Structures
1.
Amino acid sequence: MSSPVVWTFSVQTTGVFCSVNKTVIDEIFYLQREERVQFLLNLFKAKSKNSPIEFKAVLNCAKKISSEDIKLLINSLAKKKQLELIGSISAANNSHFNHARKGEDLFFNIYDELPNGKLINSLFNELDAKDKKVDLKTDMVFAWPWERKRLSTCSTYIGRENAWGEWKEDPLNHFIILWEPFGFSWVKGGNHSISIGVLREGGKLSPREYYDVSPLFDHIYTDGLNYYFKETDKAFSKVYEYDFALIFELGRIMHSREANT
């Protein structure tokens, strides 16, 4: 049996620095999938949400792991928010809940203007969504149910033994937008029934819109505190979801590797 894998962090006045040698990296692949996920998540427990230096240091650690494990880490960080968005209506004080930030806004407002006056989403490349499927069991789909009664109704009636039967796609109601290279889908219609599909890990959806958003990496970066335009180095948005700032930069690492292969 291989020896336990250890990431070494040394805390200095200039921030957190991660020291990892090749032997340690090789050991990761002897771990079971669940152990590897936890291993990678433990790496981020050492992060500081107030230090761009430490944010950069943690990302430097991530550069030492495989693209497969970076994708695993992205999905693990995103899963927490996915379930939080669905569960927040249950904890709300009233029957309706207004999510402060949802969908693409977990990163930043894609309708903000670039320095050239165009909108950020003008950078997206539209892809052919024909025959593309999103799996609610394995893919990251972000729904934000806003009414407790609707969610409860869907939970009661959707299911093999229930009145509406097993979960299935409703082309008239369900509307999702898929982003690559993150593999994230944002729900624009059918939030309550799709939430039940996510929780029960059943069903597939056809994205109504499908985009490659990797051009964002050429124009935008984050230090964990703010998002900046590369052209001007000026901040245009605060980081409201720290894990999504990490995801943004992890996506850059993954995309850069793919572009260079």
2.
Amino acid sequence: MVLAAYALAIGGIALALARLKLPPVFAASLAILLGLAWLSWPVWLSTALVRGGLSGTVQHLVWLHPPLVINGILTAEPAWTERSLAYHLTDLNQDVPIQLPANAGACLAVHGVLGLILWWMGFGGRASAFWLDSRKESPYKSPG
């Protein structure tokens, strides 16, 4: 469910960017870059937030971060922040104590709602998508 909600949000970002007249390839590329930046924030953003005095914000972001949420649900696994590679890349659970979430509610809600809103915006804010509207010709229809 966490990965489905995350995918819904990334797809919504790509659709919304395409709606802003970005070519589809660039919209999808930018959506993937934003998705990767979101997945990697514990490495590049946690230190800056702590130095800025925003360690409380880090905990809020942990509740929304898909890999950390999944790691919190899988209680038999140790936190990935304590594994050798991650330990040298991030301050989480070292200088910044965090509590991994016990459920995925907040993550699912934020990614799911964001994804649905962006998908709706990507299709022009209409209640029905272009392929459900019988009055419009699909731009992807093959000739003949």
3.
Amino acid sequence: MWLAAGRAAELDRPGTFITRDVAGASVLLVRGPDGRLQGFHNVCRHRGTRLCVTDAGTFAGSIQCPYHAWTYGLDGALLAAPQMDEAVGFTKADYPLRPVACETWDGHIFINLSDEPPPLWEQIRGLPQQTMHRRGAELVAEIERSRGEEAPPAAECPVTTTLPAPSTATAWA
């Protein structure tokens, strides 16, 4: 199942990250140097130590485990593994961070912990048509209510435009 994990705007430049705890798993979402948003399990492949203990921040070009200093690129590739050069048969390419499926829609980040998740589109089919006529405070209030948060009165949220409901459904591609 795809789960909402944040907003793409939270990760506005390479190296920015957020972490999320989902069903007992810690997930690391990071903006790579190529601008791609990627998800990883927030654990070092060496001893399973949590890589990031803060909710958000910016990496200075790499991700380093605080336990034995295994270092990963922002793309999840293992860059350095101290003292493993002597280990027979050890290849850094065999130990990238474990990926977590990550997709975006309408500025929202979605993650899926399944090994082979279906496309996000299969789960949100119809959602674009249902929401395309709603903007601003109305949509924010609905999201906050679904999270159990107190939604502000609509008058307190700036709304630039409220579009009428579409007369025909438009396919989302």
